[in-house]
């Protein structure tokens, strides 16, 4: 078994949390998820579901809990809903997911090994939720940005660490 096959088996599913800001944004999130799936990442997205038998709240809770990683697609609307702002009857899915995400971070003592901030454009950086601001974030509006996210999902660092060499001998006097 290759290292990549081992890691991918270990990664499992990748949950995608986002807000339905607009039809364009929803399609962009779907396109990102589809591309990741095409590249071997098992993304879980509500758009792939019709109506989970356990209902959306339990489905979200179960999928976030079982995911190896969760992508958090940060936008102004996403942050507002996570923070409980806006109409009380709008964006209930994001509000629910936000509560689950915050609870996971709380339970882990604020250590974040699961939630990956993703930006569709660099200007959305200011909309990363506070508990995720210390994590590396990924802007996926370019091929380079997508590749950075992809290597993060695979657990590959940006540079390969060379083997440690031998210490140079001390000069004798």
Q: Tell me about the biggest sheet?
A: 5 strands, parallel
What's the gyration radius in Å? 19 Å
Structural class: alpha/beta
- The tally of beta strands, per DSSP, is 5
Overall average pLDDT: 91
Spatial separation of the terminal alpha carbons? 53 Å
- Contiguous uncertain segments of 5+ residues: 1-9
Biggest β-sheet: strands ordered side by side in the sheet:
2-1-3-4-5
Strand-residue fraction?
5-15%
Query: How many helix segments?
Result: 6
Report the principal-axis shape.
Answer: elongated
Percent helix: 40-55%
- The string of secondary-structure elements, in order, is HEHEHEHHEEH
Can you offer a commentary on this structure?
With 173 residues, the protein is an alpha/beta fold. The chain is built from six helices and five strands; from the N terminus they run αβαβαβααββα. β1 (13-17), α2 and β2 form a beta-alpha-beta unit. It is elongated, with a radius of gyration of 19 Å.
State the gist of this model.
The protein is of the alpha/beta class and 173 residues long. Helices cover 40% and strands 12% of the residues.
């Amino acid at each position: 078994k290759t290292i990549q096959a081992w890691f991918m088996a270990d990664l499992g599913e990748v949950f995608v949390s986002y807000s339905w800001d607009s039809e364009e944004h929803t399609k962009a999130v779907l396109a990102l998820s589809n591309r990741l799936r095409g590249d071997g990442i098992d993304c879980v997205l509500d758009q792939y579901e019709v109506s989970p038998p356990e209902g959306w709240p339990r489905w979200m809770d179960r999928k976030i809990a079982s995911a190896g990683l969760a992508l958090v697609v940060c936008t102004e609307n996403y942050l507002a809903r996570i923070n409980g702002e806006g109409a009380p009857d709008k964006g209930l899915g994001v509000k629910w997911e936000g509560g689950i995400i915050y609870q996971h971070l709380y339970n882990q003592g604020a250590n974040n090994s699961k939630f990956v901030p993703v930006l569709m454009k660099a200007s959305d950086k200011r909309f990363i939720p506070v508990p995720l601001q210390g994590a590396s974030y990924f802007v996926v509006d370019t091929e380079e940005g997508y590749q950075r996210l992809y290597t993060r999902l695979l657990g590959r660092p940006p540079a390969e660490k060379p083997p440690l060499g031998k210490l140079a001998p001390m000069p004798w006097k």
